[in-house]
Fold this protein.
Amino acid sequence: MPLKLETLCGGSPICEAGTVAPRIVSLVRSGEALDIDTLDLDAGNSNEGGVEFRAADGHWVFNLKTSSLPPGTYTITQQMVDNSRWVAGFVLK
C-alpha cells in the first residue's frame, strides 16, 4: 500500500536528495502497538530497507507491506525532520 507525504516550507516542496527523510515510528492495530522493529514493513525492498520514506516525483513515498498484517483498523505515525509527528489511519479488510 503506497503511503505518500508532501512536505512544504513557505509553500515550496521539500523533497530532494540530501534532505532528511520522514520515517515511520509507530504502527498501532486496534489500540495495540505493534513492534515495528520485528515487522518487515518494506514491500519488495522498494524503500531501501528500514522505515524511512524515499523521495519520488516531489513526494515522500513508502510502500507499506500489508500481506503479513491481519485485518483491522490501524494508525501509523510518521516523524518529520523537525521531530514533529503526524498520524494517519487506514483499514485492512
Q: What stands out?
A: The beta strands are 2-5, 8-9, 12-13, 23-29, 32-34, 54-56, 59-63, 72-79, 85-92.
